[in-house]
Amino acid sequence: MPDPTKIRATANGDVVEVKMLMSHPESTGLTTDAAGKLKLATTPHYIKTVTVACNDRTVMTGDWGPAVSKNPFLTLRFKGGKPGDKITVTWNDSAGESRTDEATVG
């Protein structure tokens, strides 16, 4: 199982900024052979869906593909949050793995 998602959430008035660093290999499965030609070396392994919720209310859903970099970093802002609210980040990947992590708005 991948390492936990690092989450930092801060409130400025009613606007919450959430920054997260997800631990994930984000592999397209492609590599090059000795001649420099592309070939499929492994099964692609990348995050497909990311959902962020504040107190069980979805504030963002994103569909990703294999072009996202290894260990992706995501920042978002939304209105309607306050210090003490629970932020939940969930992702699902192409290999059927998923992870959910939580943080509290500071």
Which descriptors would you attach to this protein?
54% strand; 106 residues; Immunoglobulin-like; 0% helix; single chain; elongated
Strand content: over 45%
Give start-end ranges of low-pLDDT stretches.
none
Shape estimate: elongated
Total strands: 9
Helix content range: under 10%
Organism: Rhodanobacter thiooxydans
InterPro entries: Ig-like_fold, Ig_E-set, SoxZ, SoxZ_dom
Pfam families: SoxZ
Protein name: Thiosulfate oxidation carrier complex protein SoxZ
Please describe what this structure looks like.
- The strands form three sheets. The protein has a four-stranded antiparallel β-sheet with strand order 6-5-8-9, with no helix packed on it. Strands 1-2-7 form a three-stranded antiparallel β-sheet, with no helix packed on it. Strands 3-4 form a two-stranded antiparallel ribbon.
- The chain has one domain (6-28, 40-104): Immunoglobulin-like (Sandwich), CATH 2.60.40.10.
- The model has no long low-confidence stretch (mean pLDDT 95).
- A hairpin with a 4-residue loop joins β8 and β9.
- The protein is mainly beta and 106 residues long.
- It has no helices and nine strands.
- This is Thiosulfate oxidation carrier complex protein SoxZ.
- It comes from Rhodanobacter thiooxydans.
- Residues 8-103 form the Sulphur oxidation protein SoxZ domain.
- It holds the Pfam family SoxZ.
